[in-house]
Prior knowledge:
Strand order of the largest sheet: 1-2
Strand content: under 5%
Shape: globular
Radius of gyration: 20 Å
Amino acid sequence: xxxxxxxxxxxxxxxxxxxxxxxxxxxxxxxxxxxxxxxxxxxxxxxxxxxxxxxxxxxxxxxxxxxxxxxxxxxxxxxxxxxxxxxxxxxxxxxxxxxxxxxxxxxxxxxxxxxxxxxxxxxxxxxxxxxxxxxxxxxxxxxxxxxxxxxxxxxxxxxxxxxxxxxxxxxxxxxxxxx
Length: 179
């Protein structure tokens, strides 16, 4: 649902922030501030609601509130708090360098894996839906991989261009200026 969209949004944002830095941050901060505040509120509410969510353990649905709270506070609450802090801190400080803390957002991939496991468990009896889900998941993984590889190659070329690594022929050799 909404948490999956928020997680995917920030994973893409991390790549864009690392690749484009200050120009992306100033544009995003001025245009999407309301959306990001909404995301922080949603994630904070999720921290409050998460101890009330039942979970599966060894094939059984655990609905005991004490066990749910103990399981959540043992590990996941720290990931959720780090995620909210990683998003809220750059918004409070209003500085592009403070966005490096947002790399901690990748810890939320653990939450994505739990959502993935729950969805696969629900669709296990429906072979067609499960197969479609697996194919879509592979396409999404491929897009993320291509996205981050593109950013990596861009950053390498940009560093070579900024340092004039190949001398006067640098603009002619790099794909960043010839593509």
